[in-house]
Every structure is written in C-alpha cells, then in structure tokens.
Amino acid sequence: MEAAPLTSSLRVLHRSTTSPRLPFFKSTLPLSSSTLSFASIRRSSKNRRSSGAVSASSNSASETLVVAAAVGEEGRGVGGEVSVMKEWMHMNGLPPCKVVLRERASYDENLKAIHYVAASEDLKVGDTAFSVPNSLVVTLERVLGNETIAELLATNKLSELACLALYLMYEKKQGKKSFWYPYIKELDRQRGRGQLAVESPLLWSESELSYLSGSPTKAEVLARAEGIKREYHELDTVWFMAGSLFQQYPYDIPTEAFSFEIFKQAFVAIQSCVVHLQGVSLARRFALVPLGPPLLAYKSTCRAMLTAADGAVELVVDRPYETGEPIVVWCGPQPNSRLLLNYGYVDEDNPYNRITVQAALNAEDPQYQDKRMVVQRNGKLTIQPFQVYAGKEKEAVYDMLPYLRLGYVSDPSEMQSVVSSQGPVCPVSPCMERAVLDQLSDYFRSRLSGYPTTLTEDETLLADSSLNPKRRVATQLVRLEKKILHACLQTTADLINQLPDQSVSPCPAPYVPILS
Q: Whose CB has fewer CB within 10 Å in the chain, the N or C terminal residue?
C-alpha cells in the first residue's frame, strides 16, 4: 500500500532522436540532471408499539438517560456518575488499577464535560495501567450467545459494529435493570465525541460538512452514511437469527423499535470506542472495553495497545506518565481522514497521514490489453492507487512516473518491445517526459483549486482561538492535505526545470492515463 523506497537508476538523457530504455515499475528519476445518545429509546419504543408508527425524534441528539453532573474544571477529577461506573467495575471484578477519570469542558455549553483516563500515579514504561476482566467486555460472542452465529454474521452483510450497536440499544431500553447501565451512562455522556469533544462528521449537519469541501473525506463521510443506512435495513435479520436477542425481546423488531437516526447515533458512538483485539477469535476481535476509548485518547505515534491477556483486556503503557497526565493508545496506521471519520479528531504529527492519487490505464486504448499485462507483471493494477505520505511526496511522484510513461506509449512497435523485453523497461523521449510531468502538474493544481480556501487562509482560521471546533478540525484536515499536494506540485515543477531541453513540446497522446 505504501510507495516503494526511491531508487534512482535513470541516466541523464541528452538530446537524441532515439528513445532510451528506462526500468519500468522501479522508482526512477525523470529525464534530468457516535453518540450513544439514543433519544428516549424506552419512551419512543413504547409509543411506537401503541401507535404502530416509526418516527425519529428531533431531540434525539440531546436527550439522554444519564443523571445530571456538575461540569468540573479542566483536568479536575470527577465523581458522581463516574465513580458509580468505577464502583460497578470494581464490584464486577476490576482489580486495582493505576488510572483515574478526569474531565474537561465541552465546547458546547449544552453538552456535558468530556471524560478522559489519566494516570492516578507516576507510571513507567511497561507498567500495566489497568486490566479489565472479560466479564466487563462486550463482544459479538457475548452479544449473540454463540460463537458460530457470531462468526456467520460477522462475515455476512452486517458489520460487528451494527450488531454491537443493536445490542446496546436494547440494553438501554432496560434502564437500570441492565447490567451495563453504568457503562451505557458513560457512553451516553461522551456522545461519540473525540479528543476535541467533536463528533464524527457522520453526525454533522449539511452546512458543517461544507467545511470539508474539496477534500475526498467529504465523499467518504457520505458513503459511510449510506453504508450505515443499508445495515439498518438488515437489522431485522440479526434479530431473527440471534436467538439470544429474540428470546429477550420477542416483540421488539429492531426497525420498529428504533428509528434510523437513533441507530445512526448508536453506530457512530460504537465506532468511536470499539477496540480491535489481536490474536482472538473472529467473534471476539471487536470489543467494547470500559476505561477504553473514547475515555482513552488516541495518538498516532504511540505504540501502546489494548490487548487480550489471561481472561482480561489490559493496557501496558509504552512511555512514562506523571500523575494526572492523560493516557494515550495507538489507533493503528490510519490517515487523518479516517481519524476524523471514526473518532472526530486530526493528528498533526500523524506519520500515516496520506492522500491517494488514483491512476488508470485508458480502457479505450487499442493497446490496453498489452499494457494491462505489463502493469500486472510489475505488481500494479490497471486502476492503481498511489499512496502519497506526508514527507514522502518526492518518492511518491517518482513511483508514479513509470506507470504514466507506459500510458503514453502509442507506437505499436515500441509497445511490443516493452511486452517482449526481458526486464521491466519503457521507452522514454523528452517530449513524452514533458507530457507526463505536465499532466501531473495540471492534476495537482486541479485538486488544489477544488478547495474553497488557500493554505494561507487556513492558517489564519486556525490562529483564531474562537474558531468553532468542527471548523477547526476540518481546517486542520484540509490544510494537511493541501501541504501534501503543494509538495507534490513543487516536486513536479523541479523535475520539469531539470529537463535537458525545456523548450520541447509535450508529445501528443490519444489515450493518456486517467488521474483521479
């Protein structure tokens, strides 16, 4: 998925009427010198059964089951419902741990403070911060009561997240009768908010989504929302197939008991806090862990992970912590677009941040099949995504060049030479190289022009301390995308300036590769 390390092997091309051979699919130089706030689930479900109608409550984003609690100062320890949750955990097997729950104020005065896990004492590398027994961990195996059916559902139309969301919606309907009541109250308070107390864009309004204009992330948000809607319409299948749910709620058909908006909020909340465990069965790989996210903060440069060990899920820290310092864990190698979509935040220091440049051979090209064979022979695809990582833009551009050069080959004899060659080679001429670089340059400029703001304007926005947090996190995302695109554009411009003869006109090509 990542671009291969750059290896320069191209000799400087001097003016010549012949076309030199370049290593093809080797990186070469160019020619140069969730909110689990389900709006009154119990009440709305009762109303549905009496009226026979399904309706979404307009207040679903603000009504919760939790009791009121005073908002503490930034970093202050909290009690009330949080101490109730910890007491519940200790009563059900949580051993003594080295963490405490603290709170910071929400940007929205209408929302409660957001809680986070902090060190209750000084910690050193290798210390176990906490160990949550499996009896307090929610997994698909536990929800459905049978590992076989759990694996069946996990590999069919429904995701684990949808099953977990449905289970907790049913549990919330039971109120205090539910074993998970203290945990659900805490999820309810968090409302699927990330480290900046910002919800996933899946819960943003249409006007708020405009903050992402120009970014591919906006389309990802809309596609994910459609996927959630499809899963909602499959919920009844889970209800019928899962005997444990059917026996406990024989008259509560999911799509009649819960509106789509309620399910969407639950799904996003579960998405923000689910943990992917390694080395466990398929039915246990996705888990909800009290004291885990979203109470734990994510950091892309961290290496500590929640792991399954000896009948529990534990966290061993990978760095020293002072008392009161927030505990962070690794969220996997995710780009900022995924961090925003899943958890509502952007990491400025994310080493996995990237954009994608998709190149495709022109299917109308008479030599398409030959070119298809060549790219497959060299480990590429006819529609090839190139991942451009922050700080490695130059390597990524060099990795694209051989693929694009092949797309510009139009002479049948040259194409046959490429097909029959012993090694991966591609003919290159000065006019072809100029055409390839011009296409790349135009592409990067086009992507940059799709954003409504410039980098300078983004910097000005971020300097405003009163900027709306959703606008801030969206601006952080698009700013980092633009920095990558600008670096790619600069690399392309440098390569054009290094051409032996800059007066050469680009070669005409009837079937140029397609960049998107």
A: N
